[in-house]
């Protein structure tokens, strides 16, 4: 597929035509711009999901403790995990030279839940209550063993910065479905004790080489959700409108002269900012929410910037037509504090995550809203540190088998898909690669991933890369 604007080529034209305009003149410029191809109509087929809410749990939730209990690990507790399982595969520097790698089973109790029989830890009682509305993939896997590359891989399809994020791809391909809110909104939160040192980089929601207007719009957790949302003193809405009209006219002339797509981005952003001055205060006013709904999300729901608050905002954004909402919560990186910090993470995120699914379902929005919950990888089934010191042990990063769950938007209800080996170390039955998940997400939104690309620097780039990947048909309703 060829894009509406080939960014790199436009940059070349801008420089070339801007410096030789007197020689070539307007006719040559118009001829070049007319040669731009038009993005074919999307979606490719009727979508199951009209919108996506991605609850990204950065740091790596422990699949072993939360979703993938293994009797073999309990049997071998404190015994070294067999070398045949480790297989000489790459580990992080934190455990690669650790002399002993004792098996550590789920450190908390749990049981099979719902009619589907999905094992869920006692740390996640609210998630346990929605298992029959969800698909659990217990065979996720990837290659990246460090946080930033792994998050980038999950969010953009590549481990290096500079690629468009999932939300940017969807905004580019499907456009906006709301007139007065961005098509792609991002909200971040972190554990209250700030125990996890992970950073949120802008490229996790960036547009990469796509025009900048497709990047995510971050909503802040303090003050105005968006910077400069309020007009300065002495500036009323009519005066703001007059100023923007004049600015848009100047930018339009510049666009006609230079053909730079980022000028169109600037025009679009100014217009969206003007609309958001009216729409965002209404969006964030919770006075119309019944107390029963606030109680559903838990006691932290009114604290701006909390994970619970962001989950409720995600539902409010979804019902107002925002196509892609990306929640990013940091704190799941328990290397040496698993016994103390994993329960805190679960307490902060369990109730709001389940509440979002329940709330969407009550409003009739879940069937066409795809909800995704998961991290960039899981945690090792062997211990990091001293297994006999309850205050100083944890688990290292583990990308070769981990668990994610999805709900709504065309996925099966009460489905347990794939499995890991007896040590929760390798994805064995029906393995699902990161790119397989991305291909499935696009499919549920009506997009055939192999036909959805953008030409940049002479290459056709896809969210799902060039390696073979597949739609996971076994989880589709």
Could you characterize what this model shows?
With 477 residues, the chain is an alpha/beta fold. It has helices spanning 7-19, 21-34, 63-66, 71-75, 83-86, 125-128, 147-156, 166-174, 237-258, 261-283, 291-297, 307-319, 338-362, 434-444, and strands spanning 51-58, 110-113, 118-121, 134-141, 184-190, 217-219, 324-330, 369-374, 378-379, 384-385, 393-394, 397-398, 402-407, 415-417, 419-420, 427-429, 432-433, 454-456, 459-461. β15 (419-420) and β16 form a beta hairpin. It folds into 3 domains: 1-41; 42-225 and 290-475, Alkaline Phosphatase, subunit A, CATH 3.40.720; 233-283. Mean pLDDT is 88; it is low at 1-38. It is built from 14 helices and 19 strands. α1 packs antiparallel against α2, α9 packs antiparallel against α10 (261-283) and α12 (307-319) packs parallel to α13.
Write the layout of secondary structure elements.
Layout: H1 7-19, H2 21-34, E1 51-58, H3 63-66, H4 71-75, H5 83-86, E2 110-113, E3 118-121, H6 125-128, E4 134-141, H7 147-156, H8 166-174, E5 184-190, E6 217-219, H9 237-258, H10 261-283, H11 291-297, H12 307-319, E7 324-330, H13 338-362, E8 369-374, E9 378-379, E10 384-385, E11 393-394, E12 397-398, E13 402-407, E14 415-417, E15 419-420, E16 427-429, E17 432-433, H14 434-444, E18 454-456, E19 459-461
Parallel strand pairs: 1-7, 1-8, 4-14, 4-17, 5-6, 5-7
Antiparallel strand pairs: 2-3, 4-13, 8-13, 9-12, 10-11, 15-16, 18-19
């Amino acid at each position: 597929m060829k894009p509406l604007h080939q960014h790199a080529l436009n940059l070349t034209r801008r420089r070339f035509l801007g410096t030789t305009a007197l020689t070539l003149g307007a006719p040559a410029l118009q001829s070049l711009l007319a040669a731009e191809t038009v993005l074919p109509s999307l979606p490719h087929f009727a979508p199951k999901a009209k919108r996506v809410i991605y609850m990204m749990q950065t740091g790596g939730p422990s699949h072993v403790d939360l979703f993938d209990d293994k009797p073999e690990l309990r049997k071998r507790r404190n015994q070294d995990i067999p070398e045949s399982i480790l297989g000489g595969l790459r580990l992080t520097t934190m455990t690669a030279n650790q002399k002993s790698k004792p098996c550590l089973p789920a450190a908390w109790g749990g049981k099979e839940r719902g009619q589907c029989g999905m094992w869920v830890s006692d740390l996640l009682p609210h998630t346990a209550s929605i298992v029959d509305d969800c698909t659990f993939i217990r065979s996720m896997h990837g290659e990246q063993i460090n946080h930033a590359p792994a998050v980038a891989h999950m969010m953009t399809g590549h481990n290096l910065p500079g690629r468009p994020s999932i939300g940017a791809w969807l905004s580019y391909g499907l456009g906006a479905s709301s007139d007065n809110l961005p098509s792609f909104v991002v909200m971040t939160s972190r554990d209250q004790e700030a125990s996890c040192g992970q950073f949120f980089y802008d490229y996790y929601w960036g547009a990469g080489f796509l025009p900048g207007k497709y990047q995510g719009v971050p909503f802040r957790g303090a003050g105005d959700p968006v910077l400069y949302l309020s007009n300065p003193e002495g500036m009323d809405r009519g005066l703001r409108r007059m100023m923007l009209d004049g600015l848009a006219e100047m930018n339009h002339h510049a666009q006609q002269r230079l053909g730079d797509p980022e000028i169109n981005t600037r025009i679009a952003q100014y217009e969206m900012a003007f609309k958001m001055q009216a729409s965002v205060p209404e969006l964030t006013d919770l006075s119309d929410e019944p107390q029963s709904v606030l109680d559903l999300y838990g006691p932290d729901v009114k604290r701006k910037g909390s994970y619970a608050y962001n989950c409720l905002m995600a539902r409010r954004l979804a019902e107002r037509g925002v196509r892609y909402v990306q929640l990013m919560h940091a704190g799941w990186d328990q290397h040496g504090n698993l016994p103390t910090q994993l329960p805190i993470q679960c307490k902060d995120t369990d109730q709001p995550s389940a509440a979002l699914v329940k709330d969407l379902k009550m409003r009739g929005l879940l069937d066409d809203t795809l909800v995704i919950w998961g991290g960039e990888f899981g945690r090792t089934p062997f211990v990091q540190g001293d297994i006999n010191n309850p205050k100083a042990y944890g688990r290292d990063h583990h990308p070769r088998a981990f668990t994610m769950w999805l709900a709504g938007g065309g996925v099966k209800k009460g489905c347990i898909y794939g499995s890991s080996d007896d040590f929760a170390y390798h994805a064995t039955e029906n393995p699902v690669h990161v790119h397989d998940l991305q291909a499935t997400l696009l499919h549920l939104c009506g997009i055939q991933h192999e036909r959805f690309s953008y030409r940049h620097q002479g290459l056709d780039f896809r969210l799902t890369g060039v390696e073979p990947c597949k739609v996971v048909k076994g989880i589709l309703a």
